[in-house]
């Protein structure tokens, strides 16, 4: 059996990092880890090819070769996924769609021959058997969420690592919290499941043996969802990193209660964690309570962020506008908060009611759902009727983005981040880094209309922060991406 694994394109959003990646000659931020894991679960006798359309074209010759196409994606990839399904079917290739998208879009809207709802470890063996026998069913739905010790080593041989800026490893799935808007807990559950320490180390060994050095994203829903087990992993990570002279720097996602645990922070620092993404959502305590983000309440948010930064860990923040409790002053308060937080990478989005979430159900009961949305919370289209005037909300959202990604405001946050975190990345002398430095001078220092701000920042970085100069330049390039996407959002129709 020839199986073609296809990953649909992501649209351009803050999360795509497209403009920053172009400096290093990379084509996408991360490889399709889910499909690489699915590939490892398929029968060893099957022939496999993986086409990630974010980094390469799907060719007709691939479709002629394939007996079956397996596609996976998230809600936001729906437009490209549908186009790919139709193309496969036009070529007479049987299609199977799985991944998180099948939990939020009704099966009939995905137009595939077979739909798989649930996690691969639970379903792939049965699906593969049926496909071989020619008796596959239209729908496979997992009866339960599998233990992660059944998850195999992802098939790294199917990708070309150098096309990506970051490699990925998954340690856990699920999150113990209860945020009203969150689809993670609906799909992966509120009881975090983890891999064994040995499984994670085997994945790191595989990446190391394949020659990878640099950033590794631990793509968990909440890395500290099980605070007891994660300590064992961190202990092992520290030893592993030290035995190999720190080849990786880790990035992950966690909840803000990380700031309460100094031992955990110290262990993360020792293991080589340099960035963590946190859902902060809003500085407004009443909105946090209303959206059931209780782990962010009863604390000074800025102090909690600073407590993490003290350990040299950059905080990237997720923020949301459009809660029912948002008042007219929320826009100014959010800008002020982000500026004080020393969070350079602030992912501000409009609230989206994702299908299947508590929020979606409540708004449906209240008659406020407009449509199922596109999963893109950095667009300007609302999929529900907000309490605030919708036009005012979108205007306020755009104004927040323009302010926080104005060059001076952005560089001010980066300077504060450099002084708090003192990020000393090991910068590898490579052609890609040399090219990135030259391109950054050309695009930001010569072509960009805000070049004066850039040179002022370079001067400060080279004098006051010269030990962190590599990180400063990386942040300048990241800022360029956010500025370009902000311009697109500002100009887009709402
Ligand atoms: S902390 Fe994050 S992952 Fe956990 S429930 Fe809230 S939004 Fe979801």
Short description:
It is built from 18 helices and 14 strands. The chain has helices at residues 18-24, 33-41, 60-65, 78-90, 120-133, 184-188, 197-209, 227-243, 262-271, 285-290, 301-309, 330-341, 358-365, 390-404, 407-421, 431-447, 451-463, 469-491; strands at residues 2-7, 47-52, 68-72, 94-98, 114-117, 139-141, 167-169, 172-173, 193-194, 214-218, 248-254, 273-281, 314-321, 346-350. The protein is globular, with a radius of gyration of 22 Å.
Detailed description of the structure:
The protein has 494 residues and is α/β, with parallel strands linked by helices. The chain folds into three domains: 2-141, 3-Layer(aba) Sandwich (Rossmann fold); 166-404, Alpha-Beta Barrel (TIM Barrel); 420-491, no CATH class. It is 43% helix and 14% strand. The chain contains 18 helices and 14 strands. It has helices at 18-24, 33-41, 60-65, 78-90, 120-133, 184-188, 197-209, 227-243, 262-271, 285-290, 301-309, 330-341, 358-365, 390-404, 407-421, 431-447, 451-463, 469-491; strands at 2-7, 47-52, 68-72, 94-98, 114-117, 139-141, 167-169, 172-173, 193-194, 214-218, 248-254, 273-281, 314-321, 346-350. A six-stranded parallel β-sheet has the order 2-1-3-4-5-6, sandwiched between helices. Helix 8 runs parallel beside helix 9 (262-271) and helix 15 (407-421) runs antiparallel to helix 18. It is globular, with a radius of gyration of 22 Å. The structure holds iron/sulfur cluster.
């Amino acid at each position: 059996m020839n199986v073609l694994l296809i990953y649909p394109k992501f649209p351009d959003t803050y999360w795509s990092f497209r403009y920053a990646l172009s400096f290093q000659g990379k084509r996408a931020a991360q490889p399709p880890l889910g499909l690489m894991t699915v590939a490892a679960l398929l029968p060893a006798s099957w022939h496999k090819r993986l086409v990630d359309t974010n980094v390469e074209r799907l060719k007709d010759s691939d479709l002629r070769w394939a007996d079956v196409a397996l596609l996976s994606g998230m809600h936001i990839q729906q437009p490209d996924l549908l186009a790919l399904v139709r193309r496969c079917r036009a070529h007479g290739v049987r299609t199977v769609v799985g991944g998180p998208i099948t939990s939020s879009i009704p099966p009939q809207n995905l137009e595939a021959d077979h739909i798989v709802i649930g996690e691969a470890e639970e379903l792939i063996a049965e699906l593969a058997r049926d496909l071989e026998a020619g008796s596959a069913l239209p729908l496979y739905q997992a009866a339960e969420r599998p233990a992660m010790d059944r998850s195999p080593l992802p098939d790294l041989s199917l990708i070309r690592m150098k096309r990506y800026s970051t490699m990925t490893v998954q340690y856990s799935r699920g999150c113990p919290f209860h945020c009203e808007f969150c689809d993670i807990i609906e799909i992966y559950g509120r009881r975090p499941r983890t891999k064994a320490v040995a499984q994670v180390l085997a994945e790191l060994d595989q990446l190391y043996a394949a020659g990878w050095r640099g950033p590794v994203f631990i793509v968990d829903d909440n890395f500290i969802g099980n605070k007891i087990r994660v300590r064992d992993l961190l202990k092992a990570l520290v030893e592993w990193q030290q035995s190999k002279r720190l080849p990786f720097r880790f990035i992950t996602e966690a909840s803000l209660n990380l700031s309460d645990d100094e031992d955990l922070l110290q262990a993360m620092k020792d293991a080589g964690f340099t960035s963590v993404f946190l859902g902060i959502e809003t500085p407004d305590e009443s909105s946090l309570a209303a959206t059931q983000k209780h782990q962010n309440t009863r604390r000074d948010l800025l102090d909690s962020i600073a407590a993490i930064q003290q350990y040299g860990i950059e905080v990237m923040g997720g923020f949301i506008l459009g809660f029912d409790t948002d008042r007219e002053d929320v826009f100014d308060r959010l800008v002020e908060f982000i500026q004080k937080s020393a969070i350079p990478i602030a992912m501000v989005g409009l609230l989206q009611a994702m299908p299947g979430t508590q929020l979606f159900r409540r708004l449906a009961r209240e008659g406020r759902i407009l449509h199922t949305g596109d999963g893109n919370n950095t667009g300007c289209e609302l999929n529900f009727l907000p309490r605030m005037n919708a036009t005012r909300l979108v205007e306020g959202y755009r104004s927040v983005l323009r302010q926080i990604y104005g060059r001076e405001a952005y560089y001010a946050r980066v300077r504060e981040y450099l002084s708090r975190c003192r990020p000393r990345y090991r910068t590898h002398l490579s052609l890609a880094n040399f090219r990135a430095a030259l391109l950054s001078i050309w695009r930001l220092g010569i072509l960009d209309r805000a070049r004066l701000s850039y040179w002022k920042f370079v001067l400060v970085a080279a004098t006051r922060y010269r030990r962190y100069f590599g990180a400063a330049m990386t942040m300048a390039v990241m800022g360029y991406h956010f500025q370009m996407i902000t311009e697109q959002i500002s100009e887009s129709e709402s």
